[in-house]
DNA sequence: ACTGCTGTTGTAACCGGTTACAAGAAAGTC
DNA sequence: GACTTTCTTGTAACCGGTTACAACAGCAGT
């Protein structure tokens, strides 16, 4: 095949011995295609690695496809995790000509309906999925919820990995830096407590949001008030970074006196170089979300998927001062 | 005109009494069009508010237009200002079918040349504009630099606004929270010093980066070391937020004892509700950058534009404790 | 064998632009 | 006045898909 010439619908048609129209019908899941024909065409498409040209489809459809992102508030727009997830989504939808649009939490005032919606930060009983269904817009949640299409990182499992990593290093005085409001925070705290209890240990809770400053102030205040621990698991990399900075300012050596583990594994954070953390596979979360959108459009039954996380050893974990008893 | 039917190139052609081809030639600045005809066609396009369909052009061109964003490093990706500027650019280029692509600082290894490039954080003698010119790629800088196309906020003027606001409130002990590395930081410090000197005052410098934690630590350390001031101008909203938090933790009342002014005016920051700040018009910066890209493509002579900023009074400025002497 | 119905496929027009080529008009040359 | 040459414009094919409609095959009923 000539380099530089992309495979078109005509190539598929010729190769499969059918007409353009039939290939197009297969592409769009039109029901009036014989099963045998559909299979043959799909085989050829797979073999020639065919992807329809988004510009041509837009031209025919007189409109582009859009993927809405529904947030619960405005400020998550600036949170590193969200920025990176959005970027990953964007880089994966752009080649298919799908455009991302930001939606306010109040979906009832959408100007134009998007082709599909990704619902972020959904909580139990969130009205958004039901509303979208009533408008015929397929939707996928980021976060787990039975009965819906969803994708979520393994928050509980990742928290266990982090906690067990600290325990294996010999730590007995554990603390969790976080806050119980969101589903994510709750899962991460639960994983942490589960692992600790399994080892017969208790976990002190230090309340904090997900931000750097939040982590800094919470840890500094707790330490100044006499709270002591040797192993700290923070619910986010940012709060972990804040914790490390606070300990540094308090003259507490990391990891000499206190070990710190974060969560998310965002490569763009300056601290990523040194922080021990549980890394999420953000590109894969994005890819899975988009695959689920396709399923939802195709009328498949709802399902969810947990995306594995990975412990990323760094320089902020070491055995506790006294060593293992 | 029927609602729902966009004006097409055929409408223009009919209305102007020429053929599709001629309209297309006018659209693309093809030189072989009589001046009289071009003027007539352009008048009709303006009157009917015509915008060519990006999908149709992509289809003909066999490729889409891309706008590259060149950063000097990776981590600015997560800085709030950059995130919001990128979002503004995106929302303005998307309707024209132009796609944003992130470029590494090392432009020599670009996979495919973008249609144009926005160079961020350019410093004097930056090799990127020259390199791009040699490859025939038009570029526009964010930040001012003679001889190039550029757009920049009025950093110096904004810093003067902020400082004069503090001075007008009665402050005599001023401090600047920032760092002299980047062009932006230098301009903002210069504007601050200019205004202070004009009022016969001096300015203490507290070194900090642009982040929340950086501002927090810098201010806290300075204050604990005995540095005193009643009016603080921070080079960014984030460092201002850090400063406010630090002062709060130190038991210093804002604005009772110390007044704080930030810079950027990012609506999505939680502190924006209360912080006195100098607001940038980010959508306008984006729009101007895109207009300059058009100029650059059209071969116009290089020019730059400062975008005005605006003092946004908040709740973090009040007269100093002793009142005006 | 004829009719009517259903299920499947081909045909061709169309989406809104671009552009190679041909054709006309105007101007210069002998 | 006939012949080039140079500008300017119209024509029609094309980019890669979608889809209304026609056509055809197979089958049941009579």
Structural features, described:
The structure is a homodimer of 325-residue chains. With 325 residues, the first copy, chain A, is of the alpha/beta class. The first copy, chain A, folds into three domains: 9-52, 434 Repressor (Amino-terminal Domain) (Orthogonal Bundle); 65-153 and 281-309, Rossmann fold (3-Layer(aba) Sandwich); 155-280, Rossmann fold, CATH 3.40.50.2300. Chain A is built from eleven helices and twelve strands. Chain A has helices spanning 9-16, 20-27, 35-47, 54-61, 80-93, 128-134, 155-168, 183-198, 212-224, 237-249, 282-297, and strands at 65-70, 98-103, 116-120, 139-142, 150-153, 174-178, 203-207, 231-234, 259-264, 276-279, 304-307, 310-312. The first copy, chain A, has a six-stranded parallel β-sheet with strand order 2-1-3-4-5-11, sandwiched between helices. A six-stranded mixed β-sheet of chain A has the order 7-6-8-9-10-12, sandwiched between helices. In chain A, helix 1 (9-16) packs across helix 2 and helix 7 runs parallel beside helix 8. The first copy, chain A, is elongated. The mean pLDDT of chain A is 92. Chain A binds chain B through residues 53-56, 58-59, 64, 74-75, 77-78, 80, 83-84, 87, 94, 99, 211-213, 216-217, 241-242, 245, 249, 266-270, and chain B through 53-56, 58-59, 64, 74-75, 77-78, 80, 83-84, 87, 94, 99, 211-213, 216-217, 241-242, 245, 249, 266-270. Chain A binds a DNA duplex (30 and 30 nucleotides) through helix 2 and helix 4. Chains A, B: One of its GO terms (molecular function) is DNA-binding transcription factor activity. Chains A, B: Keywords: DNA-binding, Transcription, Transcription regulation. Chains A, B: InterPro entries: HTH_LacI, LacI/GalR-like_sensor, Lambda_DNA-bd_dom_sf, Peripla_BP_I. Chains A, B: Residues 7-61 form the HTH lacI-type domain. Chains A, B: This is LacI family transcriptional regulator.
């Amino acid at each position: 095949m000539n380099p530089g010439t992309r495979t078109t619908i005509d190539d598929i048609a010729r190769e499969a011995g059918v007409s353009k129209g039939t290939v197009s019908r297969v592409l769009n899941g039109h029901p009036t295609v014989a099963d045998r024909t559909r299979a043959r065409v799909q085989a050829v498409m797979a073999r020639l690695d065919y992807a329809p040209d988004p510009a041509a489809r837009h031209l025919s459809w007189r409109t582009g496809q859009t993927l809405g992102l529904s947030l619960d508030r405005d400020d998550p727009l600036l949170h590193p995790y969200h920025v990176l997830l959005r970027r990953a989504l964007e880089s994966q939808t752009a080649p298919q000509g799908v455009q991302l649009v930001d939606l306010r939490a109040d979906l009832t005032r959408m100007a134009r309906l998007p082709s599909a919606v990704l619902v972020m930060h959904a909580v139990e009983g969130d009205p958004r999925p039901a509303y979208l269904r009533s408008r015929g817009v397929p939707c996928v949640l980021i976060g787990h919820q039975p009965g819906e299409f969803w994708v979520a990182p393994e928050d509980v499992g990742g928290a266990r990995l982090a906690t067990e990593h600290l325990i294996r290093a010999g730590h007995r005085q554990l603390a969790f830096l976080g806050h119980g409001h969101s589903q994510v925070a709750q899962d991460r705290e639960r994983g942490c407590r589960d692992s600790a209890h399994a080892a017969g240990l208790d976990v002190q809770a230090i309340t904090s949001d997900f931000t750097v400053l939040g982590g800094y102030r919470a840890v500094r205040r707790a330490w100044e008030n006499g709270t002591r621990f040797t192993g700290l698991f923070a619910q986010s990399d940012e709060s972990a970074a804040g914790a490390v900075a606070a300990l540094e300012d308090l003259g507490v050596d990391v990891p000499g006196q206190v070990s710190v583990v974060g969560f998310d594994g965002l490569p763009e954070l300056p601290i990523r170089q040194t922080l021990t953390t549980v890394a999420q596979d953000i590109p894969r979360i994005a890819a899975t979300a988009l695959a689920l959108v396709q399923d939802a459009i195709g009328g498949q039954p709802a399902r969810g998927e947990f995306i594995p996380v990975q412990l990323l050893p760094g320089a902020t974990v070491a055995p506790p001062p006294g060593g293992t008893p």
